[in-house]
# Entry
Amino acid sequence: MAGFAGAHLASAVTSAKGIGFIGSAYDISALQTELRNVSDILHNTLTTTENDTQTLPIGVGFLTFIVKSSDAIPLVKKYKPAAVWLFAAKELEDYTEWAEGIRSASPETKIWIQIGSVAGALKVMKLCRPDVLIMQGTDAGGHGWQRGAGIISLVPETRDALAAHGFCHVPLLAAGGIADGRGVAAALALGADGVVMGTRFLGAPETMLPHEGYLKTILEAEDGGQSTVRATIFDELKGPNIWPELFDGRGIITESYKDHVKGVGVEELRRLYKEAASSEEGGFGPNGRTIVWAGTGVGLVRQQKNAWEIVEEVRTEATVALKRACGRQCI
Ligand SMILES: Cc1cc2nc3c(=O)[nH]c(=O)nc-3n(C[C@H](O)[C@H](O)[C@H](O)COP(=O)(O)O)c2cc1C
# Structure
């Protein structure tokens, strides 16, 4: 979650025995600062046995259509994160160069690639054998494939296709719409080895939010399939859309989106957006225009909670949900 997930969120999730990630976009020097901070925090909080590997026990995310591998890889070499997360390549072939660069800079670092289709998962496996594949379904908050499926079909179909091509070993994680332990239990039942949560952590104080209105919008949103939408117009509001054609993003339905549907032109939408964003409310609120990236799970984010508490609560809930499901099956 570029701009949202920094040292505090990543270290809190890792300390709760998840794996926290720092997101990045253009600003490599901001990433360097977050890496320095996370390294300090974790050295002070983790015991020697918890931190006995050669790697920094967090991951770092790169949007590969934005950042050059030659700018990113020196940081991987220096900080040796446990994982590097790659997303949004212009062409899937681009991951090959990234994977080679990361493996030679930091052989212990695992390569995670987020992907949104069965065919894409197979292709990426053949191209560069990532250590982990994240199957991102259409419920996910933020950017993803315009054409996609929910994890309920995406995960098992990918699992079958990978097995049929001899890739039984690769861990699959499910992403998109998972906001509590019931979602985790469902993902495990679908054949996932673990899950990714983004939207749920927008309700954690460790997450960097641009304005208090962002948190309020997240906590007040209900019925995520109605209150959020996938659209490309969100990426046009600050200027021309820079994302590769395949992608759109899921966010809260705002006045900007509603006006776009009514046929208001992009120049006017940009003007109104700029005006709203520079107001004291930051363009948030009931008639807000500012982009609030969030997935369909937003209706399950009801109160602010510390990130470690979220991880622990979700883990406990998942165990209960799985036991309950087994109990039902046995009856
Ligand atoms: C606010 C926000 C920002 C995001 N930014 C990124 C990003 O920079 N890079 C990326 O790979 N995914 C990004 N994502 C998508 C996540 O990787 C993940 O697929 C998603 O959060 C999972 O679905 P969920 O939001 O329903 O939990 C973002 C998601 C959100 C909610």
